[in-house]
Amino acid sequence: MSKRPAEPTSPSSGGLKNRSRETPETQPPEMGDFEDNFEDEFESDDEVIEAGADGEDPGEDEGKAVEEMQLDQQVYMPSRRQLAKDEILEPDPSAYHMLHSMNVNWPCLSFDILQDGLGDERRGYPATVYLVTGTQAARPKDNEITVMKLSGLQKMRQTKTEEDEDSDSDDEAEDDPILESRSLPLPTTTNRIRVSPHSSHAASLAETGDVHIWDLSTHLASFDTPGTTITPAANKSTTLRMHKHVEGYAIDWSPHLRESMGKIVTGDNDGKIFVSTRKEDGTWATGKDPLRGHTGSIEELQWSPTERHVFASASSDGTVKIYDARANTKKHQLSVSVSSSDVNVASWCSAVPHLLSTGADDGVWGVWDLRTFPNTLKGEHVSATASFTFHQQPITSIEFHSTEDSIVAVGSADSTVTLWDLSVELDDEESRDTGGVEDVPPQLLFVHYCKDVKEVHWQKQAPGTVVATGADGFSVFKTISV
User: Fold this and answer.
1) At 150, which CATH number?
2) Sign of the CA dihedral running 394, 148, 204, 6
3) How many CB atoms lie within 10 A of CB 266?
4) pLDDT per position as a tens digit, 141-200
5) Which domain range does residue 112 map to?
6) DSSP structure class, residue 143
């Protein structure tokens, strides 16, 4: 599976397995360029149609123009056809409540959304999002962990009236989104980063195999508390080296309140899994012996939302395994073959704890009922509750909505983020209208283009808001569908 995005000067991404990358000579762009190409672009002026001086019917000229312009009325699916050199893909502004894109210095393989104190169930505008991410720079010394505050994210403006145009100069500065950032030096690529659900700590997995624990409380405070000083000590991490320089991509924090001090599970490309716990004095303790069972690399780890000591692992060996961290055998309790290819990603549903979604290298993603997994102990075959083959490239990210158990966000190497509603069932009459696309499942709600998308997350405090990272930076959007 290819997880690494293209470098700023490279047209395509390097593979995960070969670990090679080119070094561009050009300098990276400035941080913080928002691209809001659609906010002020659409004008709606009243038209006055008059007959020509010679009395010619103006409808004739209009008909000629229509004949000259060949309009493509077919639904365009980025995953089905590449754009031609003379084609430009533009989003339909009427399909979004909010849409913003953001350039960063270097591509980011992974990010997470930081919980803030602005309240839950936020639906108003302008919106604010706090993120933490790690870079993939061309030179190791240019890498960093970046904490960002994105504010002033306005609602999509569909049309502009003459009154709006007259006041543009007065409101222009007020309408612009704002990006603020804080950097923590880290001279290596970050493969995966996750934020604790209990504090302002983040854990990152570096390509060196090291696990870094970051306290981001000072950096977050600096955004909203004038005079906050970020000392050099605040930029330092606690480093765990139990993986002994073996690269990995899988990490997760325990969501359980009894583990509020901090508990993480990490996995590497040698198939080893470690559980580490933060002690009261702030130091970390890691089990001496790893948990084993997989014959391939560990691609994803997910703690159970209800069972304190239970977690699931997904691997390039095509299986999902369920572990109990208390087991003395250090072996899995259950194992299910979910794909004939690498299982790249997984998401454990917090709203319905017996549901687990997975995404594989062959482009197939599915939802599994964990209550059926014990049937494998009796030699029975376990099938997915729902399975979709819409994507034709590897699945790179998947995440259940935090409160809507039927809603799933999926990222794919075909450069799309798709939103799905598993509860949708269309009758025969509705299903006949396919918009010219015959292989679109009725559960598919939305398709968003994000070049070489690597990771997708829901903003839990702002229902329906999605953040994605890809080769061209970040997308922050909310659709009319969710």
Assistant:
1) 2.130.10.10
2) positive
3) 27
4) 999 999 999 999 999 886 555 555 555 555 554 578 999 999 999 999 999 999 999 999
5) 93-155+173-479
6) -
